[in-house]
UniProtKB/TrEMBL annotation:
Keywords: Leucine-rich repeat, Phosphoprotein, Repeat, Ubl conjugation pathway. Residues 220-264 are annotated as: Disordered. It comes from the Eukaryota. It comes from Chauna torquata (Southern screamer). InterPro entries: Leu_rpt_41 (IPR026137), LRR_dom_sf (IPR032675). One of its GO terms (cellular component) is cytoplasm. The keyword Cell inner membrane does not apply. SUPFAM superfamilies: RNI-like (SSF52047). The keyword Aminoacyl-tRNA synthetase does not apply. Residues 229-245 have a biased composition (Basic and acidic residues). This is Leucine-rich repeat-containing protein 41.
């Protein structure tokens, strides 16, 4: 400790400080960081050794880690939070001045919460308030993985956490992974709070007191509201005076429900807790929010209660449908007419619709002026969802879910859902959230079992596209079964979002019912695509034929396209690939990266050579394309000579093409003395390469480099999943010599076990 104090207060010689750093605890190493920088020393080796000694694992993508200090402290925070690391296990962690969560939290930019959300409970505990404040500044990515159902107290902690980190923090990405049987209410809680929605009727409590940040904001809004109150009061008095004594009037309803149905109870519907229910209904109507499923078809929302009878009918229905959600709060409201910290408030408010059979309502203000609502709603719904099988009304009372009734906070810009089944109810709620989620920039829906509900999601996205301030730039949709042809889905999304930069559509299998389109969802195959900003397009066909005629309108509209990836497509004729290449040449002059995966190119040698000599392409991928299945020596020689003459090609990826030893050795001639190639990266993964073949390739490459005086641009070689384990000694020699030439990325792959697995599934 004395040595550290001296090093921080005085200029220790660099060699003394270098010897001192490995002897410091984490707490003092962190304090010595500035002194090390002043002395021109890097602490990275010390943090890396600390990682190896404490974590005892190899982090994924370790070659890409630029700051081991941040990597260690971020992982350390997560491990301590989830109780998988004992700080007493290493003397460098066991410092009485060191608070593990507090001192590591400023370095945490990414956090994963798992299982029963124990981490949320710990972070919202009163003794960790400063930790939460640090996370609100540093945290950017919040992940949920393998979640289980949780009790109300844990969900309440999650509400506090999300409110602080998203609504009043810096989190801009929420990702959820692997939730085979999701708790619907918990899922919608995370989705709705990620979208920035929260009830405005009751203050959010934090350690038994209102959220300070909300209170400050609420005071500002209250001052503004005070000025507007007289005008609003006149509207209420004028519109409701005639109906106060009738059976369906708001006052009669309040009397029937008892004294507990006051302003606090109406927080489920009201925009501010100080406003009575009738004020909110008037406000909602004036904001053009549809409140009645049966009365909105073909007509716009009424002005502020021009028809009192219709409004009273709507209010009765609204009150009845929300009775179950509101009723259980009455005892709490009778005890405290101002505040109720019921952790179930959000579910009552946001997910009433999910417990019903019907969708939420679409805010018609998101529809451009003059556009008919018939284009956006089914015959029985005002929701963004069309009337398809997944979203069709099934009778019973209609659920009410008005986004206008919630207070809107800050929302995230990236939403990712991986392997989380989405039911029809959840899709309708997500569609509602998407319809006004203007801050959303990246949307990833992966293996969610959407089925026919894809149309519901598309409806929400179409509604979102009507907002002039929409920021959506990246959409990725993948699933096992496709419910519509891939190209139709691509055209549907691009026609609504020409501003997209990245679009990825991927399906494993074709749905047998794909041709039976649900009623109310017109085909997108004829949708006109305006000129788009698309730069990256990825399509994985579920063994569908690749018809260039369907892809051509997309290519013509995407003049800025730089990356194109086509996966698992079947070429219906020998001319189809030639037509595609011609279309790319004419329509996409800026294309830099082209990738084919699992596309049989064994009989398309001419087209392959044309691609390899393209003067614009910088990266070409032929992945598992059976390229060398019936390859002759002449074709291999032509490939090598074509690449040697192409000075623009920087990366060539050939994984899974049955290259073998002798063809790998031949590829070394790409770097011969007479070559004009600028190739930097070569990927020969999964190509049945053995250690002796790799060693021969290395020797030949060394010879070419020597002939060129050591001047070569080749920097990266990828060797994943080859048969290098068959002779470990030879493989190690080849890899050692290769690493003196370029960066080599490989793995310890058990080829015998892989072959056994392959045989077992044949």
């Amino acid at each position: 400790a004395a040595a550290v104090s001296l090093s921080l207060s005085a200029a220790l010689p660099g060699h003394l400080l270098r010897g001192l750093l490995p002897l410091l605890s984490v707490f003092r190493l962190e304090r010595a960081e500035a002194a090390a920088r002043r002395a021109g020393l890097s602490t990275q080796p010390v943090w890396r050794k600390l990682w190896d000694d404490v974590m005892k694992t190899r982090p994924p993508n370790s070659e890409n880690i630029t700051c081991w200090r941040k990597k260690f402290l971020e992982t350390f925070f997560s491990n301590v939070l989830h109780g998988v690391l004992d700080v007493s296990s290493d003397w460098r962690l066991n410092d009485h001045n060191f608070s593990p969560l507090l001192h590591s939290s400023p370095h945490v930019t990414q956090l994963t919460l798992c299982n029963m959300l124990q981490g949320a409970v710990e972070l919202t505990a009163e003794h960790n308030q400063k930790v939460l404040e640090n996370l609100a500044v540093s945290l950017r990515i919040l992940k949920f993985q393998h979640l289980l159902s949780s009790d109300p107290s844990i969900r309440h902690s999650l509400v506090l956490l999300l409110h602080r980190l998203i609504h009043h923090g810096s989190v801009n990405q929420v990702s959820m992974y692997s939730w085979p049987v999701p708790d619907t209410a918990l899922l919608v809680l995370i989705l709705s709070m990620s979208a920035g929605f929260w009830r405005s009727g009751n203050a959010l409590t934090y350690h038994s007191s209102p959220c300070g940040l909300c209170r400050e904001e609420g005071n500002t809004q209250s001052q503004e509201l005070t000025q507007e109150q007289p005008e609003r009061g006149r509207c209420n008095e004028r519109e409701w005076s005639d109906g106060d004594n009738q059976k369906g009037s708001p006052r009669a309803l309040e009397e029937a429900d008892g004294q507990g149905a006051d302003a606090g109870q109406n927080s489920v519907l009201s925009r501010l807790s100080c406003c009575p229910l009738q004020n909110q209904v008037c406000e909602e109507a004036s904001s053009k929010v549809s409140w009645d499923h049966t009365s909105i078809q073909g007509e716009s929302s009424p002005p502020c209660f021009s028809e009192q009878l219709s409004c009273r009918r709507v209010l009765r229905k609204s009150r009845r449908r929300l009775k179950s959600a509101v009723g259980k709060k009455r005892r709490c409201l009778r005890r405290s007419r101002g505040l109720c910290a019921d952790p179930d408030d959000l579910y009552d408010f946001v997910f009433t619709v999910a417990r019903e059979d019907n969708a939420g309502l679409l805010d018609k203000s998101s529809i451009t002026e003059g556009e008919s609502t018939d284009n956006w709603t089914s015959s029985s719904s005002g929701s963004p969802c069309c009337g398809h099988a997944g979203c069709k009304k099934r009778g019973g009372s209609a659920g009410i879910f008005s986004l206008k009734a919630a207070h809107r906070f800050r929302s995230v810009s990236t939403l990712e859902l991986f392997s989380i089944p989405l039911t029809g109810d959840t899709c309708r709620t997500l569609s509602n959230l998407l319809s006004s989620w203007v801050s959303l920039e990246n949307l990833v829906l992966s293996y969610n079992g959407l089925g026919a509900n894809i149309f519901c999601i598309l409806s929400g996205l179409r509604a979102l596209s009507r907002h002039s301030d929409c920021r959506l730039h990246v959409v990725r949709v993948s699933d096992v079964f496709s419910h519509m042809p891939c190209m139709e889905l691509v055209r549907c999304i691009l026609s609504a979002f020409p501003q997209l930069h990245t679009l990825s559509v991927s399906f494993d299998l074709k749905n047998q019912l794909e041709g039976n389109r649900p009623e109310g969802n017109p085909s997108c195959s004829d949708a006109e695509i305006p000129e788009s900003c698309l730069e990256q397009l990825e399509i994985r066909f579920p063994r569908e034929p690749l018809h260039t005629t369907f892809l051509l309108p997309v290519l013509k509209a995407s003049k800025s396209l730089q990356q194109l990836s086509l996966d698992s497509a079947a070429l219906p004729s020998s001319q189809e690939l030639g037509l595609l290449l011609q279309a790319l040449k004419e329509c996409n002059p800026n294309l830099k990266k082209l990738s084919f995966h699992d596309v049989n190119l064994a009989d398309h040698q001419k087209e392959v050579l044309l691609l390899l000599q393209d003067p614009i392409l910088q990266e070409i991928t032929f992945s598992f394309c059976r390229l060398f299945e019936s390859c002759t020596t002449e074709f291999l020689t032509e490939i090598i000579n074509t690449v040697k003459r192409n000075s623009s090609l920087k990366s060539l990826k050939l994984p899974g093409n049955r290259l073998g030893n002798h063809r790998l050795v031949a590829l070394a001639d790409i770097f011969s003395e007479d070559s004009a190639s600028s190739l930097c990266q070569l990927d020969v993964s999964s190509n049945c390469i053995k250690p002796d073949g790799l060693l021969e390739f290395t020797k030949k490459l060394e010879g070419h480099i020597q002939q060129r005086g050591g001047q070569i641009q080749f920097t990266h070689l990828r060797l994943f999943q080859n048969w290098l384990d068959q002779d470990a000694e030879t493989a190690q020699e080849a890899l050692r010599r290769l690493k003196a030439v370029c960066s080599v990325v490989n793995d310890s792959w058990d080829s015998s076990q892989a072959f056994a697995d392959y045989i077992s599934v044949m």
